[in-house]
């Protein structure tokens, strides 16, 4: 049985799919600077959702899970920065 | 001092923590992320240094197909998470494994038109693209086979371990997407 603090899995999947769709739309429609920012933000949100919503391991060590999310956000931010700088 | 604990329910709710597996899994998770992080960092750098090669690569990539592949992999991760939560673990693992195979099929379909167009191009960036996505594809294929093997005889510990690795493969793809495809 899931602890009550868990986010319902269908909700996590729905949010991940929505964020993926928005990311693809942003890649096709926006100019470089807002595109970089939106894609970095959406990727960071997706990484956090995946770790918190799907990975059971995050319950065992919230510090390491937080580091995992921070690492993913760092890579997302670098990707967003490259998009904003180079188009 | 051993305090009386409901061992069976503890084993069912926290299987990963048993036998030092938690530490082993964290080491594996970070190893994967550090390796892919280094490759993606190199791709970002080469993309800045060689914009024409990046434009050439982007012209050949199929963004809608990458979106469908992402949705497939995320759906597969959903089934793996359901298996861990104890809902029909065998059938959820089978669904997760076949989701992985569907991702492999989609990626091979993408390669079928990318490879002829890109293999004639001499560029480190293109080589890195095939290295990163090919390495990730090999992970998906390998772990999907392991998932099906675990589905044969699922135990809470095995299900939790294989699902964790599957989520790492998902997470790596979520990072590949903005670095390679959405840029």
TrEMBL record, chain A:
Chain segments annotated as transmembrane: 7-30, 36-57, 64-85
Name of the protein in question: Uncharacterized protein
Q: What are the UniProt keywords, alphabetically?
A: Membrane, Transmembrane, Transmembrane helix
Organism lineage: Bacteria, Pseudomonadati, Pseudomonadota, Alphaproteobacteria, Hyphomicrobiales
**What is the protein's species of origin?**
Bosea lathyri
Q: Does the keyword Membrane apply?
A: yes
TrEMBL record, chain B:
Which region is the signal sequence?
none
**KW Transmembrane helix (keyword) present:** yes
Q: Give the record's keywords alphabetically.
A: Membrane, Transmembrane, Transmembrane helix
Which terms does the record give in the GO molecular function aspect? cytochrome-c oxidase activity
Heme-copper oxidase subunit III family profile domain residues are: 1-183
> Where in or outside the cell?
Cell membrane; Membrane
Q: GO CC annotation: what is one?
A: plasma membrane
Q: Which residue ranges does UniProt annotate as crossing the membrane? A: 23-45, 65-84, 91-109, 129-152, 159-181
Membrane topology classification: Multi-pass membrane protein
Q: Report whether Glycoprotein shows up as a keyword of the record.
A: no
Task: From the UniProt record, give one GO term of the biological process aspect.
Answer: aerobic electron transport chain
Q: What is its main location?
A: membrane
Q: Supply the SUPFAM superfamilies for this chain.
A: Cytochrome c oxidase subunit III-like
Q: Family, per the entry?
A: Belongs to the cytochrome c oxidase subunit 3 family.
The identity of this protein, by name, is Nitric oxide reductase NorE protein
Species:
Bosea lathyri
Q: According to the entry, what is the taxonomic lineage of the organism?
A: Bacteria, Pseudomonadati, Pseudomonadota, Alphaproteobacteria, Hyphomicrobiales
